[in-house]
TrEMBL record:
Residues 167-278 form the Expansin-like EG45 domain. It comes from Nitzschia inconspicua. This is Lytic transglycosylase. Pfam families: DPBB_1. Residues 290-379 form the Expansin-like CBD domain. InterPro entries: Expansin/allergen_DPBB_dom (IPR007112), Expansin_CBD (IPR007117), Expansin_CellWall (IPR051477), RlpA-like_DPBB (IPR009009). Keywords: Signal.
Length: 383
């Protein structure tokens, strides 16, 4: 009996030295076994290209909030190894800086040393916190520009136009009538459009009354606000000028008074895009493994995407960088080698710097083909 026990202890120690376990797995989000490209041992996981990975000794964690998930309303919900950080408007589960995952492992996973996180903004400001991508992505993805979370309304004006249900300058394929945005869209300009990087953002537009003297124009007493998604470009519009489609304008003015009003005074603010589905990726028409471009649709939360990067089959890095250098309607992807090899992992960064990564999303290079990303960003608070 003693010899059997000693043999078991020896085997357990040997497995620990080799970094192997029967239940453990490599994780980037600190909750799921979501990393498959870094080998099957703890040592392989923790030395995998500086991706800020962690080894889950007991496999996936349950009933906790994963990395980058919102903890605004429950600061104790983060998975082991994560802390709830942020300001009074938005909080997010992020790695606890400076904690090291060592051997022999403890029951609660901790982190390898990481670089210092960006300091959070002052709670008195309106800006949400800036969250850094992992080191492997930092060298590939541009630093995200941070949009303010608009809590208070700003003054503005709204006009209307016929709209473009088939996409407009932002390249969206269709405008849903039965789900958000319920047929309501807006063309934006200036810093709001931001050369196409403002596409997808959502705004709450409230009718105040006629812009100037127009006694025949008035707001709808039943519903004087509408939430719209930026889907098109208004070249002559400044930042506070929103060119609504007809459906949106008719929603907030008196019955069928869009044409009578023409232009109205508004209050507006940036709000969360309330999509209740996962993100959709679409390969651009005419694309191939030699020239690849894509669209990103139905992004919840900030709505607008700052950065897209791809990791091709057999690669450890997200070294295919996508941008809007060829126009605002799609993301053109620049690969250091050609042709690109499928399947492709996809990394998306929103305007707050939050990262979502999907593995094996794009499996071929057929043009006009859609891919389910399988997840979406959390919403952003506006109250």
């Amino acid at each position: 009996m003693i010899s059997i026990l000693c043999a078991a202890v020896f085997a357990s120690s040997l497995l620990a030295m080799l970094g192997k376990t029967t239940a453990g797995c490599c994780s980037q989000n600190y909750k799921d076994c979501d990393v498959s490209h870094c080998g099957t041992s703890k040592n392989q996981c923790l030395s995998c290209n500086g991706d800020q990975l962690i080894w889950l000794e007991n496999g996936p964690q349950s009933f906790c909030t994963a990395r980058w998930g919102t903890c605004t309303y429950n600061v104790n919900s983060c998975c082991n190894g994560l802390s709830c950080v942020g300001n009074q408007y938005y909080r997010q589960c992020l790695p606890a800086v400076g904690i090291t995952q060592t051997a022999p492992p403890s029951n609660s996973p901790t982190l390898r040393p990481t670089s210092q996180q960006t300091k959070m903004p002052s709670p008195t400001g309106m800006n949400p916190p800036v969250f850094l991508p992992s080191p492997a992505l930092t060298t590939i993805l541009p630093t995200p520009s941070v949009d303010p979370t608009i809590v208070e309304f700003s003054q503005g004006k709204a006009t209307y136009y016929g709209g473009n249900p088939s996409g407009g300058a932002c390249g969206y394929s269709s405008l849903s009538i039965s789900t958000f945005p319920f047929g309501a869209s807006v063309a934006v300009g200036g810093e709001t459009f931001d050369d196409g990087y403002g596409c997808g953002a959502c705004y709450e537009i409230s009718c105040v009354g006629p812009y100037g003297s127009n006694p025949s124009c008035y707001c709808d007493g039943a519903q004087d606000f509408v939430i719209v998604q930026a889907t098109d470009h208004c070249p002559e519009c400044e930042t506070s000028h929103f060119d609504l489609n007809l459906a949106a304008m008719n929603t907030i003015t008196g019955q069928q008074l869009a044409g009578t009003c023409g232009i109205i005074e508004t209050l507006w603010r940036r709000v969360s895009c309330p999509f209740q589905k996962t993100i959709t990726l679409r390969s651009k028409s005419g694309t191939s493994e030699w020239w690849y471009a894509l669209h990103v649709d139905d992004v919840a939360g900030y709505g607008a995407i700052s950065s897209v990067a791809l990791r091709q089959h057999g690669s450890a890095e997200f070294n295919i960088v996508c941008d809007k250098s060829n126009g605002p309607s799609f993301w053109l992807c620049h690969s250091p080698t050609s042709p690109i090899r499928a399947p492709l992992d996809v990394a998306l960064v929103d305007r707050a710097g939050r990262i979502l990564i999907g593995e094996n999303i794009i499996t071929d290079f057929t043009g006009d083909k859609s891919w389910d990303f399988g997840k979406n960003f959390d919403g952003i608070p506006t109250h």
